[in-house]
Design brief:
Elements lengths: L2 H20 L5 H15 L15 H17 L2 H13 L7 H24 L1
Helix pairs in contact: 1-2, 1-3, 1-4, 2-3, 2-5
Length: 121
Amino acid sequence: MNIKLWTKNLKRDIIAIWIAARDGRTPFIAKIVAGATAAYALSPIDLIPDFIPLFGYLDDIIIVPLGIWLALRFIPDQLMAEFRETASSQSERPTSVYATVAIVAIWLACGILISVNLYSG
């Protein structure tokens, strides 16, 4: 499989697992894994910013495909085929406001912890 096709399928699968996370027929554990993976992948803010050398693209190359793979292990094949079909017909990519808020909160908490440790010592 060439890289262009793999990337296209990856983008489609992100949307498909986002749909799966919202569907009542999806098993609970699959909803959790799919929801977390899709929220992370669709968040406009990365946990590890892309400008950080070596680690910046780690989430895009390893974490997101690994999360998709794990979600696919829990979603029945027939449902996933339906979700992929729906994802292929969608014109817009969804975004995750909750994931954005969570990532900003994590960065703020890290900044506060670092500041407290620097100024209390």
